[in-house]
Amino acid sequence: MTRLLAPRNRAVHAPRPVAGEPVALFQQIKDHIARQIQDGTLRAGDRLPSEHELVAQFGISRMTVNRALRELVAQGRIVRVAGVGSFVAEKKPQSTLLQIVNLASEIRQRGHDYACEMLVVERVAATLEVAAALNVRTGESVFHSVCVHLEDGVPIQLEDRFVNPQVVPDFAQQDFSAQQPSEFLLRTVPFDEIEHVVDAVLPTAEQAQRLQMDAAEPCLLLTRRTWTQGTPVTLVRCLHPASRYRLGSRYQSSGNPIST
């Protein structure tokens, strides 16, 4: 979460001269602020100088300053609060892309509060897409759950899951206030194959409302399928606001994950 802190009165000096080919003024301002964030001169929650202050300090146009700040927002380095100012963004949490992790544990390990709001647990008729993914007949009854995962009270993932009842017949009887669906599945189903696909998408109006975000903001959609001994277990779509979360992994050339 971004803290709206008073300025720490750290000096922001003019960008260093750039050798070689000329660099656009907006890029110089952008790089200068990015360097201060990178080296710790500016920390998460720190207030940046206002556009007016940057214009006066560097002797450049407001349009140039505004472009630099807009691009820093797009990169997730700063956040802008209307009528308040610009602040260094908290580092976005990152979830591994090539493994299934316990999201609750991952959030708590960062020292943050985790919560899960279950919205739907039901049996539904499998659509053609769901039937193909779970290797069942179209119209056959499958389990469906929808939940929102929150970090420090802020929604970071909307999870829409379909589960094969042939593999997990008691899925709908679980108390998901005690453990979230993925945690239950990880503990009870010995999956041996995973497929991950990531897409950049815009949320629907309903998804944006559930994630408490602007419908014009892009999202990362992680679609996961799992199997156990060749039988499909689950199809789940995890929607993340791109400004709040990222997906990634670091592996050795041998294919082994690098511990951090």
Characterize the structure shown:
This protein folds into two domains: 25-88, Orthogonal Bundle (Arc Repressor Mutant, subunit A), CATH 1.10.10; 94-247, Chorismate lyase, CATH 3.40.1410. Helix content is 24%, strand content 29%. It has seven helices and ten strands. Strands 4-5-6-9-8-7 form a six-stranded antiparallel beta sheet. Strands 1-2 form a two-stranded antiparallel ribbon. A two-stranded parallel ribbon has the order 3-10. The longest helix is centred in the first third of the chain and has 14 residues, at 25-38.
Mean pLDDT: 81
Count of helical stretches: 7
CATH topology of the largest domain: Chorismate lyase
Structural class of the secondary structure composition?
A: alpha+beta
CATH architecture of the largest domain: 3-Layer(aba) Sandwich
DSSP strand content = 25-35%
CATH class of the largest domain reads Alpha Beta
Look at the structure and name the CATH superfamily of the largest domain.
Chorismate lyase-like
Radius of gyration: 22 Å
- The first-to-last residue Cα distance is 22 Å
What does the main sheet amount to? 6 strands, antiparallel
- Strand arrangement within the widest β-sheet reads 4-5-6-9-8-7
Total strand segments: 10
Q: Give the number of domains.
A: 2
H-E order: HHHEEEHEHEEHEHEEE
The amount of helix comes to: 10-25%
Shape descriptor: elongated
Q: Which parts are unreliable, with pLDDT below 50 for 5 consecutive residues or more? A: 1-21, 94-99, 254-260
